[in-house]
Amino acid sequence: MEFVEWYPRGYGVGFKVRRKLYEERSRYQKIEVYETEGFGRMLVLDGTIQLVEDGELSYHEPLVHPALLTHPAPREALVVGGGDGGALREVLRHPGVERAVMVELDEAVLRVAVEHLNVGKGVLERVLAGREPRAELRVESGADYVKGKEAAFDAIVVDSTDPVGPAAVLFSEGFYGDAYRALRDPGVYVTQAGSVYLFTDEFLTAYRRMRRVFDRVWAFSFPVIGYASPWAFLVGAKGSVDFGRVDLARAAALDLRYYDPERHETLFQLPRYLRGLLALDATE
Ligand code: AG3
């Protein structure tokens, strides 16, 4: 048996699966968990692959660490979405982070992550049991949560689903503006931004909207196991954050598997045809 996620133009990403372990229709989406043959369990939301256990670090590391390591001293962080707990787990690996708030829309994803997945399970269980004093978990819309917040966070990490349905608002100029105001100066914002090759238009739209809001914007990509790679990420700066410069001393303490801070510049590898479209803020 296999599970294939079909992207536009008939491009598929598939895994051989042993069985479906769980299925539920929550208020917001269809949630499925499969046991793959070679990559552990797999989380699927509305037919789109969110992660495989033996590969999720290839997404969560580049999502979280480059942004946090280029901010001079992130102490308070907000994670929007990321109900599996993987992004929160990576944020909490930074000893300088004193407080991390995670806002997940769908309570059912949190429950499934605790009951059926080995990703952020440990962290989520500790938070729910009140044994993770640095973290706070809220079940609500991230878009509503940031509205009206001022200078409340040093870093905002958006781990959303694709920019359709419940997550569409997280790619709107209004949300970027609210997030910008919710950031301190200096502040850093990072979001996943879809498949470079197959969601190019969505990626470019998000990039242009972010350019209208943030002081500087960078695009980077990373090959993610389970997605139509390379996968795009967008970073927005408030104030003096320079996403081209990593704090290697802080990075050395993290024991990373995929993102290589000593080769930070490789993040900016993008197909040539995008350069003109982006007018990229280069790494120099
Ligand atoms: N967040 C979702 C990334 C988007 C995947 N899209 C797709 N396969 N079409 C990842 C959740 C992991 N924390």
Q: How would you describe this protein?
A:
This protein has 284 residues and is of the alpha/beta class. Strand 3 and strand 4 (41-45) form a beta hairpin. It has helices at 57-70, 86-91, 107-116, 121-128, 142-146, 173-182, 200-213, 248-252, 272-278; strands spanning 2-7, 11-25, 30-36, 41-45, 48-52, 76-81, 99-104, 135-139, 153-159, 183-195, 216-222, 231-238. The chain has two domains: 2-52, Roll (Spermidine Synthase, Chain: A, domain 2), CATH 2.30.140.10; 57-282, Vaccinia Virus protein VP39 (Rossmann fold, 3-Layer(aba) Sandwich). The relative contact order is 0.15. A seven-stranded mixed beta sheet has the order 8-7-6-9-10-12-11, with helices on both faces. Strands 1-2-3-4-5 form a five-stranded antiparallel beta sheet. It contains nine helices and twelve strands. The model has no long low-confidence stretch (mean pLDDT 96). It is globular, with a radius of gyration of 18 Å.
